[in-house]
Amino acid sequence: MQQQYQFDQHHHNTGLEDLLTMPQQRGRYEVERHRHPHWLVVTVSLLVLMPALAACGSTASSDMGQLTGVVYTKGGMNAETSPAEAKLTATPTGGDTSKNYTTETASDGSFSLDLPAGTYELTGTLITRIPGGQTTPQEVTISAGQTTSVEVFAIHP
Questions:
Q1: Strands 138-142 and 80-83, bridge-based pairing
Q2: Which of 39, 74, 97, 157 has its Cα between 20 and 30 A from that of 24?
């Protein structure tokens, strides 16, 4: 009975900090005491950053449009139009003209290219039919959220 009294008296006379760090109590209470401030910081940080991150993501994708089409060769002895593989380049005609966007067509001459809204000069070099042949340059305008379709031609002599 005397030991129980001393134990209770010891707890009564110690501060809350001593109770939380006593060897028999240390495990669970100490972890909880240190964990709460970190969760608060993380939660507040996420609440502050989420709207900013959401705004960045929606702005970037809403400024994009898509260019699709098919590359053809035209002319030759039989005056036929045939799909051709090519490497295409879209160069902005205004703003940062040093940024080029490139794509290669599929074997059927079709292509698709995601581009920021703006006006571009579309040029190309044939890979098949007339390897090294050039497509006729053309200006294309891309609107945000829209798909622009074009036919690209290389004239066969």
A1: unpaired
A2: 39
Contact 115, 146 (CB under 8 A): no
128 and 106 Cβ atoms separated by less than 8 Å: no
- Angle (CA) 83 130 147, round 5°: 40
Helix (H, G, I), strand (E, B) or coil at 107: coil
Question: pLDDT means per 10 residues in the chain (157 residues)?
Answer: 46 49 50 51 52 47 91 76 93 88 96 96 90 91 97 82
Q: What is the pLDDT of residue 74?
A: 82
Would you state the torsion angle of the CA atoms of residues 70, 75, 81, 84, taken in this order, to the nearest 10 degrees? -40
Q: What's the rounded Cα separation, in Å, for the pair 69 and 63?
A: 20
Contact 117, 142 (CB under 8 A): yes
Q: How far is CA 147 from CA 57, 89, 122, 124, in A?
A: 20, 17, 15, 20
In the sheet with 101-104, reading across from the earlier edge strand, the strands are 101-104, 86-92, 118-126, 138-142
What is this structure's pTM?
A: 0.59
Q: Distance from first CA to last CA of the chain, Å, rounded?
A: 112
CB count within 10 Å of CB 146 equals 12
